[in-house]
Amino acid sequence: MSLSSSSASAPTPLPRPRSNSTTGNDATARPLEAARRLAVPLVLVALAALVVLLAAENRRLERALLIASERSAGGLAIGDVLPAFDVQPLASTGGVFDPSVLAAGDLRNALLFFFTTTCTVCEQNHDAWARLAQENASSRIVLGIGLDDPSAVQRYVAEHELPFDIAAARDGYLAESLGLPGVPMTVAIDGAGVVEARELGVLPSGWSVDAATR
Predict the structure, then answer these.
(1) Fewer Cβ atoms within 10 A, N terminus or C terminus of the chain?
(2) Among 190, 213, 185, which Cα is nearest to 112's?
């Protein structure tokens, strides 16, 4: 009887809570998964930045090689100060070209198109030169320079109706004195009177001063 009474009044032990190892693993796994998800876009961003940097460095090296090759060949090269030379104005489209600026060697912010009247390749640049003249009319002096006799250049201008100011060399030695290797030649002069871009031959489609100087 006493045993029965004692047993009935004894406290009932509570079951021990089982350790939830799965919950602990989940708590650890969530930050790791989040870190992995964050790492992927960060790696992609870093790779994209590296590609941009390598492309910029490649352009810089290409420009340096171009300058070096031009200097080794002689003639007007990127980085050269445009020398003074004399031309005879022939036709104006309302531009602000002053030949005395060239004669004094003070030409700044200009775009020059060198051609000859017998150069059939030069004619392939007419449309591109017209586009460049329009794009740069408010920021640069735009001038076509014929390297032939002024009377021949005047007839050429009348025939082709070039939409920019035209001048002609006063003698037959301008190309030689400037060291021009050939025509057509497109030359961009910066605000310090330095050659910042030049392109010999037919201009690539969409060529611009900004793209050439990047």
Answers:
(1) N
(2) 185
Give dist(CA 85, CA 75) in Å, integer.
14
Token look-up 């100087």 returns 213
pLDDT in tens, 137-171: 999 999 999 999 999 999 999 999 999 999 999 87
Assign 88 to helix, strand or coil.
strand
- Residue 199 identity (one-letter amino acid): E
Q: What is the spatial distance between Cα 70 and Cα 169, in angstroms, rounded to a whole number?
A: 23
Report the alpha-carbon distance of residue 43 to residue 41 in Å, rounded: 5
CA distance 59 to 66: 10
Q: How far apart are CA 207 and CA 214, in angstroms?
A: 12
Cα 165 from Cα 3, distance rounded (Å): 125
Give per-residue pLDDT as tens, 27-58. Answer: 566 666 766 677 667 777 777 777 666 655 55
- Fill in the DSSP letter of residue 207: -
Residue 101 pLDDT: 81
pTM (two decimals):
0.66
What does the chain come to in residues?
A: 214
Q: Can you give the pLDDT at residue 67?
A: 44
Half-sphere exposure of 148 (CA within 13 A, CB side): 14
